[in-house]
Amino acid sequence: MARAIKILLLNGPNLNLLGTREPEIYGKATLQDHIDAATQAAVAAGFTLDAVQSNSASELVDKIHEARTKYSAIIINPGAFTHYAWSISDALNAFDGPVVEVHISNPQSRESWRHTSVVAPVAIGTIAGFGQQSYVLGVQAIAHYLDNK
Ligand code: CA2
Is the pLDDT of residue 1 over 80? Predict the structure, then answer.
């Protein structure tokens, strides 16, 4: 079914390094592999998807502001910003559409400083710990949410 739904997939700091280090935590897939998998899932749901990665919180905030008039939904892996970047949380809170937080690893099973998310309270839900499947599940969560609201 064709739907005029545009999803913005945001990726935070250091995620550009995926596939180069710590494969035991993050797997061997590169960020582009994750984006390709998410894009395929979006196309299958009749959506379009644009992806952005930035190591700068202010750049991500600017992208979220732009998304207010350009996108229906946001999927965000905020990287380490998850745990303390209230500017990103506030910007997401000002976005009217659904926000899904995704993580490749499961922060709850890692160091205690990763157990807090300042993004979770402004998201419809969080997907974590499913490796490359996390991004696909994020797209499917948006499709399910929009179909049932
Ligand atoms: O599991 C996730 O997706 C995280 O958002 C990844 C972040 C981490 O700070 C969050 O707690 C959980 C870190 C991404 C850094 O990725 C790297 C990959 C390869 C080499 C170095 C960093």
Answer: no
